[in-house]
Structure formats: structure tokens, C-alpha cells
Design goal:
heterodimer, A: 4-stranded antiparallel beta sheet, 11 strands, globular, B: 114 residues, mainly beta, 6-stranded mixed beta sheet, 4-stranded antiparallel beta sheet, 12 strands, 50% strand
């Protein structure tokens, strides 16, 4: 049973560029959440997708956008990259938007984005 | 808003020592509480959870008790192993936003030597 898979594993971009990160949820999960983890910090919630719509959003600017496809996979797009966007981007999947006691988050190994 | 505060690391222990990692939280309402572990180069794995006051979560020898009166959820293990070396994150989830929206602490690195 495949868990959450993310691609690519590493990425280097230049300031001002745009980037797309991809995530496939764990089999059976329909909800995808994205988190940003800066070096030495805990993950911070970016947004959550369910039924192909953004359902919740954290305190991130509109440069961060996403998409969910009918097969529940998801993309995270970041425009006009800043140096401060350098971080590990984690995708997590769950069943339903409220998760529940028996449906905790399952995290992927992340995409390490470096902006130079 | 919600927040989680963890003791700063790294915590350095010898194998078989007793472990405590402190975690306190600030939240409105009655959050659920979690401990996640992150091994080098990997994503986060759920270690244990507690959903209401006085609940004790446990897994792989780790334990944590939800203390509403002290707003704490300290992680403990009686005898650590080298393989426990990792970064540990305390987190909470607001009941209104659901279990998939977590607020994390900054993490505490644990280093266990033979």
C-alpha cells in the first residue's frame, strides 16, 4: 500500500521564478493538505483541498495556490519566488476534511525547495 | 490564536536513560493533542495522540497525558534507544477546523548515544 508520494524530492529555483510541486495521497484518502517547514521550525499549514476545492487556508499570501485533480492528487504552485520560500514542503493526506480519530494525517517525505 | 511551545533541543541522552520532552499549548476550546516524529530525510509520522482531558496516548514505549489544568502534553519514555534519535513535534488540532489542520511546535531534536 503506497503511502503519500511527493515529487520532486529536491528543487532549486531562482528568485522571481515559479514552481510546481506534486503530491499523490495515500490510497483511500481524498483530502490533501500542504505544509511549509522552514529550517529548524515546525510545519505551518498552507491550505487543504477536498473535492477539488480549497477548503481551508492558513496565513499564506496568494502567491501560494493549489489544485486537486479528480484522482485526489494535488499540486502546490508558488509564484514570484522569494528567498524566504526556501523550505521543506510537506504534503499530507487524510480521509475527509475533518479527519477524525481514526483518520490521522499521513505525511509524505517532502520536497526540499531552495530559492537562490 | 492557537500555539504550541516545546522545550528547545537538542536533548542528548545515553541509551536506556529516561526521556521527557515538555510541551505546553494555548488554544480556544478543547483541542486534540498529538506527538509526531521526524527521522532524518523523512516526513512526519504520528507517534501518539489524545483527544480529551486526562487521556493518555501511548505507542512504542512513548507516553503523553493530556493535562487540561496545566495545558500540557509532555512526552515521556522510560528507556530510550539509539533508534529513537529524531526530531519530535508536539501539535494540536482545533476541533472546529478538524484533525487535518495542525498547529505545530518548533520541534525538539533528540540525540541518543550508545
Amino acid at each position: 500500500d503506497a503511502g503519500v508520494t511527493q515529487s520532486p524530492t529536491h528543487l532549486i529555483k531562482t528568485r522571481g521564478q515559479q514552481v510546481t510541486l506534486r503530491c499523490s495521497p495515500k490510497s483511500g484518502h481524498d483530502t490533501v493538505s500542504w505544509y511549509q517547514q522552514a529550517l529548524g521550525q515546525g510545519p505551518q499549514f498552507i491550505f487543504q483541498y477536498y473535492e477539488e476545492e480549497e477548503r481551508q487556508r492558513g496565513n499564506f499570501p496568494d502567491r501560494f495556490s493549489g489544485h486537486q485533480f479528480p484522482n485526489y492528487s494535488s499540486e502546490l504552485n508558488v509564484n514570484a519566488l522569494l528567498l524566504g520560500d526556501s523550505a521543506l514542503y510537506l504534503c499530507a493526506s487524510s480521509l475527509g476534511t475533518t479527519g477524525g480519530y481514526n483518520s490521522p494525517l499521513h505525511f509524505g517525505n517532502g520536497t526540499r525547495l531552495t530559492v537562490t | 490564536g492557537d500555539s504550541v511551545t516545546q522545550m528547545e533541543g537538542p536533548v542528548t541522552l545515553s541509551e536506556e536513560a529516561f526521556l521527557t520532552i515538555n510541551c505546553t499549548y494555548t488554544a480556544t476550546g478543547y483541542p486534540s493533542l498529538f506527538w509526531y516524529v521526524q527521522y532524518p530525510g523523512e516526513g512526519l509520522q504520528l507517534l501518539l495522540k489524545a483527544t480529551k482531558a486526562d487521556d493518555k496516548g501511548s505507542n512504542k514505549g512513548f507516553e503523553a497525558t493530556y493535562r487540561k489544568e496545566t495545558t500540557s502534553f509532555h512526552l515521556e519514555k522510560g528507556s530510550v534507544q539509539v533508534s529513537d534519535s529524531a526530531v519530535y513535534f508536539c501539535a494540536l488540532s482545533d476541533m472546529n477546523s478538524g484533525y487535518s489542520t495542525l498547529t505545530f511546535g518548533k520541534g525538539t531534536m533528540l540525540l541518543v548515544s550508545p
